[in-house]
Every structure is written in C-alpha cells, then in structure tokens.
Design brief:
The chain is α+β, with helices and mostly antiparallel strands and 302 residues long. It is built from six helices and 14 strands. The strands form three sheets. Strands 4, 5, 6, 7, 8, 11, 12, 13 and 14 form a nine-stranded mixed beta sheet that branches. A three-stranded antiparallel beta sheet has the order 1-3-2. Helix 1 packs across helix 2 (28-36).
Length: 302
C-alpha cells in the first residue's frame, strides 16, 4: 500500500497527473487503469482520474499483484531485429495476433515469445506478458517487447509521454489534396458498432497523426504516417475520416476493403530511449513482400 498526502504546491491538479509526478515507476496510463479498476482511493473513496486533488487530501494506491503468466509456449518463427537482456524488437508478420484473447487462445505472438524468452515482464497480465504496445492482426512491422517489469514501466512511460517515435507506411485510396498534413481529432468507441472506433466530436481521447505523401497515382497514394499518440485503430480511423481509407481495411475501407487481401499498413520505423543505457535506439522493419509488390505497382502507374 502506497499512501500520499497532497501538498499545497501540488493541489489543484488532476489525480492521475499528481500520481504520475509522485510515483516515477508508474506510467500515467498505468495509473489511470489502476484508478478505473478501483485500486486507488482518494480520502477513502473511489475517485476518477480527472478528479482534482486538494491540499491535505490522502491518496492510497494498493497495486495488485502481477498476474502469473498462463499462456503456453509455442515454437513459432520470429524475425528478431534486436535483442538484449532487457527487451527485443521484432518485425511482426501480417496475420499474427499479438496475444491470447477471444477466439485466439493459441498461435499468437505471446505464445511464440514464451518459447523464445526465458523471462518476460508480467505487468501486462497472464495473457499479455511483455506486450508494451500492440499492432492489429493484419498490420506488419516493428514491435518492442519488455523482458522485465522495470523495462516495461520505462517503455510505457515513453509511450505515454509521446517521446517514442512511431512511423508507419500506409497505402490509401485516392490522391490527397495536400502533400503533407496533420489530422488532430479525438477518437472514441463507435456508439453503435462496438468493434469499431470513430471520431469523437464531443468525446473520446485526443489523437494526432501527421502524414506525408511519398508517392501517388490517380487511384492510390503511399503515405508516411507519424503517430503522436497511440489510440486504437488510430491511423485507420484518421485516414478514413480524411476520406482516404487504408486499402484492404475490412473495417473502415468501405468499397476499398477488397482491394488487397489485408489492410496495407506497416509499422515501418520505431525509435526510443533504452531504459537501461539511455541510448537512443532506432529500428526499421523490412517491408513485407505483398506491400513491396503493391509499392512497385504504384511506382509503375502513370
């Protein structure tokens, strides 16, 4: 149990921000999750992350025990880009689900990691050991995995602080009017279709995507997309909102969903500060064959 008393200097701030400042080992996202799950008390009562703290308030945090890993190891080939005692970066192939869940209890990245690594961080729980961030099943590219809890916490902080560089390649429908741009629109769960996300005009969480057109024909554009936040389906939702959905996207692509067998989105580049050495590390995932072939066809187009 961690007990904190709010001082005059820190009064008037949001609870989640107060805790993030006081508890350096926790990311703000992790603290928000703990608050929502009922592991935080403000003056003995369950609060909300946005509640403001006052001078003299008592905040109690009772962090739950890290869940035991229960997923089973499976020997699935992994394309490792980098690995050391703290983390590994890999090129996730398209079609590989990140972790066990409804409909996918086996043959996931987690199952493969358990066969590859002797240790993985347990912060993600028994179904998501080592998983710091996620890619959709059909999205290929760079993923970083934590082997211990301190590395997991540090990387999560970098994600929350938006200091981790995440650059994607996307093949989209149509030709954009501007060669560069920024999509700054909050994202929320769709009010009707619960598997989808949507632009939350008066709700949702802030989301920002920067794009640059690398190549275009009369029907298709190749974009470089830089994420400045990490919301579920962010690039797919933002580009759909812009009127240029990702080709092959069966959830947001509309009439363009069947253009390719899968959504043409690749997590191309990833950069972050190594939690132990503080070295800035930059990685690039090779472009998969189907994506590369689509790019060649685009280059050959008039």
């Amino acid at each position: 149990m961690i007990t904190l008393t709010v001082s005059r200097e820190t009064a008037g701030t949001r609870l989640d921000r107060f805790l993030a400042k006081e508890l350096a080992d926790f990311s703000r996202a992790r603290l928000q999750a703990l608050i929502r799950a009922g592991f935080v008390r403000l003056n003995g009562k369950p609060p909300r992350p946005r509640d403001l703290v006052r001078n003299g308030d008592v905040v109690e945090l009772d962090e739950p025990a890290i869940e035991k890993i229960e997923a089973k190891a499976e020997y699935i080939a992994l394309e490792i880009i980098f690995e050391d005692d703290d983390l590994l970066v890999l090129n996730k192939p398209t079609g590989l689900v990140m972790h066990p869940g409804a409909g996918h209890q086996q043959h996931t990245l987690v199952n493969a990691l358990l066969a590859h690594c002797q240790n993985l961080s347990g912060i993600g729980g028994r179904e998501r050991p080592g998983i710091v961030h996620r890619l959709d099943k059909e999205t290929s590219g760079c993923v970083v995995v934590a082997k211990n809890d301190s590395t997991h916490r540090d990387l999560s902080k970098q994600f929350a602080a938006r200091t981790m560089e995440k650059i994607y390649l996307a093949l989209v429908a149509g030709v954009l009017r501007k060669p560069t741009g920024v999509i700054d629109a909050a994202i929320a769960r769709h009010p009707v279709h619960r598997q989808r996300m949507s632009i939350g005009r008066n709700r949702g969480r802030t989301a920002k995507t920067e794009y640059r057109v690398l190549r275009a024909s009369h029907e298709i554009s190749l974009l470089e997309c830089t994420l400045h936040s990490g919301r579920t389906h962010q690039i797919r939702v933002h580009l759909h909102h812009l009127g240029h959905p990702v080709l092959g996207d069966k959830l947001y692509g509309g009439k363009h969903a069947g253009t390719f067998a899968r959504q043409m989105l690749h997590a191309w580049k990833l950069a972050f500060r190594h939690p132990r050495t503080a070295e800035v590390m930059k990685f690039e995932a090779p472009i998969p064959p189907d994506f590369a072939e689509a790019m060649r066809q685009l280059a050959a187009s008039p």
